[in-house]
Amino acid sequence: MSLLPRLALRQLRTQLRTTEWRALLLATLIAITLTTLLTLLGDRLERGLLRESANLLGADLVLSSGRPLSEARLQEITASEVTSTQVVQFPSMVSNPAAGDTPPMLVSVRAADAPYPLRGEIITEPAHSSDLPTPGNVWIEARVMDQLGLKLGDTLQLGYSDFSVSAELISSPDRGTGFRSFSPHIIINHADLEATGVLAPGSRANFRILMSGSKEQIATLDAQLRPTLADYERLLALRTDQPLTGNALGNALAYLKLSALTALLLSALTILLSLRRFSQKQFTRSALLLNLGLNPAQLVRVYLYQLLFAWVALTLLGTVIAALVDGLVQSWLVNLLPQRLPDPAFYTWFSGAALGLVMLILLGLPPVLSLARIPVAHLLRGDTPPQDRRARMLQASCLVLLAITLLLFLQAPLAALILLGLLVIGGLMFGYIAQFLLERLAEPMATKLLLGRLLRLRLRQQRKWHRLQSAVIVLLLTLLAVVWVSRADLLAEWRAKFPTDTPNYFVINIQPWQKPDLDGFLQDNGIDSELYPMIRGRLNELNGKPIRPQLTEEQLQDNTLRRELNLSWTRDKPEHNELLAGQWWESTPDTPQISVEQDMMEDLGLTLGDSLGFDIGGQQVSAQITSIRGVEWTSFRPNFYVIFSPGALEDYPGTWITSFRLDGERKQLATQMLRDFPSLTLVDIDQLLAQLGVWLKRLGDSSAMILGLTLLCGLILMAVTLLQALEQRRFESALMQTLGASGEQTRRLDLLEFLLLGLVCGVLAGIAAEVTLAGLHLELLHVDPKLHPWLWVTLPALASLFFVATGFLIRRPLRLDQCYRLLRSQS
After folding, report:
1. Are strands 83-95 and 105-112 parallel, antiparallel or unpaired?
2. How many angstroms from the chain centroid is the CA of residue 812?
3. Rounded to whole angstroms, how far apart are CA atoms 426 and 765?
4. What number is the average pLDDT over the span 426-446?
5. H or E element that contains 236
6. HEC states along 549-595?
7. In degrees rounded to 5, what are phi and psi of residue 327?
8. Interatomic CA distance for residues 27 and 46, integer angstroms
């Protein structure tokens, strides 16, 4: 080994005795360990959550069409080399031929080819090893068995064919979209479909092709198919096209990235502070090495060798710790998840090491180069050399490079830019603001407390250090508050989508002549519900002219133009809709008016006062937009894109729809309703709600684990920062004790300073966290921003408590002999 590496190793062993170097190593170890762990866990959870979402969809990608898929389309998908299978889904009446007095029942029929499904699994009772019923057999849900009086082995009639009931269908993915997903389901083999004679040209059916493959294959195929979709085709993807779970999945993955970014920034702040303190302690050593014959380039290499040797050791240790913790996490998740999380990508094992090296080099290069410019005269003067403009430019350049690295690594540019912007602004502002507030708070203490005068003197003498320390602490607290509060807001947003009173039954196909009797049944049994009229129509005009030529290519892809819409009319605004703009009609207007859903208004570029025309059964109906509504589509209540004013659609044939909730023994009322009104279609969505409940619980458990790890990282780094502050005050405490102060008095002075520091930094961090959360909520997590008044109180209180408790635990009064030795070592 050459001279410089040997010198670096010898210097490294000596540096291990200093607090600054230990803090640097601990911060880097945490950065490597937590980055590796979060990357491993994040990749596992992302793959696992995508798998869970795919289990609901039944595939990675689904092409849905209102017409039979063309041969050209099938060949295009086959050529992409993904795994695919076809499904036909349609509504049909089924009956029990052995019970002639039992009326037929409307069900949703799925005729599928093997393999099916491509993601998830079909659960039956008794369990079957095959993917689908064998020809001549059918799997049916319990509601069909109960209503038709069937049991295993009985015969079910569908069209011209009889099927043997071979299993009860417990749960299954790929239930389709719209009301067909909620209707009672039966599954048959696609080979039996033609013999039933149910489907004829013009029949209302949904033709789907399910696709699965690698992430790259699916992304390529999605980009290939989406621009060529016909009006009657729709492409469903995991992240973007699931109305119930897609947004929650995107939020969960965004939170994982936010947590990883927060952990990196926490570590980077502590590394930056440790390197600054370390370089200041190296002035005399560097001047001595230069005086003994090393040139500046050699000195830089010695310090870079030290950082490199430390990085190698920390990488091995951090990766091993991350692997052990990852194993513990996997064993914990075994009891939470139905199946093991997927293995992470191979490159994720090296993510922490790569980021640790980048952070050490980019953050360590400026102070190391400044050490190479230490004048030899520093040995005689002992002063702090001034920092020239080139050093500041180098620091700025390295910070920019670090920001770019984080942006590329996390693939979340918006979140990284917001938080990095906070760092830049915070570094310039928070230090000065905190210093000003600390000095103002110390003024009244100086007149009332003996230690208050010493505190005021300390704050004035160490202004520069307090500015840097306060800025770092404010940013640490802000980042911890952001990752803590954002998780709470996300969980509240997810749970708000599915409150405990979410309806679990829909009733559709209610004929006008049945409405009075059904109203009476609901009222007599105390079922809280409201009936809405419903009629289907296709949007085809805007302001008296065909709508399509007036829209852009992007607007023409909107789903409201690709299908018939469910239209309704009512005098009073639905309670579960929010009026965002315009006015609701108070009575029956002279000319038809409509209220339009907010997203439809924005997607089609509509404004209040526009006139929309609809084709309803071959007849044209036009109305003016007078209000805009906010609609929560996941509320499981009857919702409509367009609601007409009274008198506009009453003359057209339509049906009615309602939803309500029944729990426990009251679920028997659903069966009684079907006996009294056998022609109604009762849609039980309990199974879907149960699936969503389990799915959201897993999101909550996963995010709680990420939050715990990130908070642990932040608390350790906060303690390291405070430890450095206490180490800096040891010399001052030793001097005070030799002049007559007691060890307990110097300890109280440190704790009083920490109390003020916690209060001031906590208040500033609360303000900074609110601003940061507002930006992240709007642009990254896609939830509504809101104020958190409790944060303004709890954050200063918790910060003060943590600072004082940490100082109390790690700050021990110095003995007089320790004071003498410390003063001699600093002389």
Report:
1. antiparallel
2. 44
3. 10
4. 79
5. strand 233-237
6. HHCCHHHHCCHHHCCCEEEEECCCCCCCCEEEEECCCCCCCCCCEEE
7. -65, -40
8. 27
Instruction: For tokens 């992302």, name the residue.
Output: 46
- Evaluate whether 563 touches 66 at the Cβ level (below 8 Å): yes
pLDDT tens-digit series, residues 35-77: 787 778 777 766 766 666 666 678 888 898 888 888 888 888 8
CB atoms under 10 Å from CB of 207, counted, come to 19
Output the six-digit token pair for 552: 């852009």
Q: Collapsing DSSP states into helix, strand and coil, what is residue 646?
A: coil
C-alpha span between 181 and 245 (Å, rounded): 15
Q: What is the mean pLDDT of residues 412-416?
A: 60
Closest CA to 475 of 467, 464, 465: 467
DSSP 687-704: HHHHHHHHHHHHHHHHHH
Count CA atoms closer than 13 A to 369's CA, side-chain side: 16
DSSP structure class, residue 238:
T
Closest residue by Cα to residue 799 from 765, 767, 768 = 765
Rounded to 5 degrees, φ, ψ at 131 are -70, -30
Buried b (16+ CB within 10 A) or exposed e, 657-684: bbbbbbeeeeeebbeebbeebeebbbbb
User: Mean of the pLDDT values across residues 610-619?
Assistant: 88
For 2, left (φ over 0), alpha (ψ -120 to 50), or beta? beta
Q: Report the first-to-last Cα separation within the chain, whole angstroms.
A: 36
Q: How many beta carbons lie within 10 A of that of residue 490, not counting itself?
A: 23
Smallest CA-to-CA distance from 574 within 582, 587, 588, 584 is with: 584
pLDDT attached to residue 610: 92
Q: Which of 132-141, 328-337, 570-579, 733-742 has the lowest mean pLDDT?
A: 328-337
| Dihedral in degrees, nearest 10, Cα atoms 143, 148, 153, 159 | -100
Q: Say how far apart CA 660 and CA 497 lie, in whole Å.
A: 16
pLDDT at residue 243 in the model: 45
Query: Cα separation of 405 and 383, whole Å?
Result: 36
327 confidence band (pLDDT: 50, 70, 90) = confident
For 250, the 3-state DSSP assignment is: helix
Q: Which of 502, 415, 458 is nearest to 693 (CA)?
A: 502
Each residue of 276-309: pLDDT tens digit? Answer: 777 777 777 777 777 777 788 888 888 888 888 8
* H or E element, residue 163: strand 161-171
Three-class SS state of 535: strand
The dihedral built from the CA positions of residue 188, 190, 191 and 196, taken in this order, carries a sign that is: positive
Name the E strands within 655-813.
655-660, 681-684
Task: Please tell me the distance from the alpha carbon of residue 434 to that of residue 473, in angstroms, as a whole number.
Answer: 10
Taking 60 as the threshold, does the pLDDT of residue 482 lie above it?
yes
- Residue 662 Ramachandran class (φ > 0 left, ψ -120 to 50 alpha, else beta): beta
pLDDT of 244 reads: 46
656 phi and psi angles, rounded to 5 deg: -120, 160
- Higher-confidence residue of 177 and 14: namely 14
Helix (H) or strand (E) segment spanning residue 287: helix 283-291
Structure confidence at residue 88 as a pLDDT band (50, 70, 90): very high
Which helix (H) or strand (E) segment holds residue 819: the answer is helix 816-826
* Contact present, 147 and 93 (Cβ < 8 Å): no
Distance, in Å, from the CA atom of 179 to the CA atom of 176, rounded to the nearest integer, reads 8
As to burial, measured by CB atoms within 10 angstroms (0-12 exposed, 13-18 middle, 19+ buried), residue 622 is middle
- Kind and range of the H or E run holding 510: strand 505-510
What's the Rg (C-alpha) of the chain? 34
Element (H, E) at 596: strand 593-597
Q: Are 560 and 539 in contact (CB under 8 A)?
A: yes
Angle at 41 between CA 37 and CA 45, to 5 degrees: 170
pLDDT at 40: 80
C-alpha–C-alpha distance, residues 401 and 359, integer Å: 10
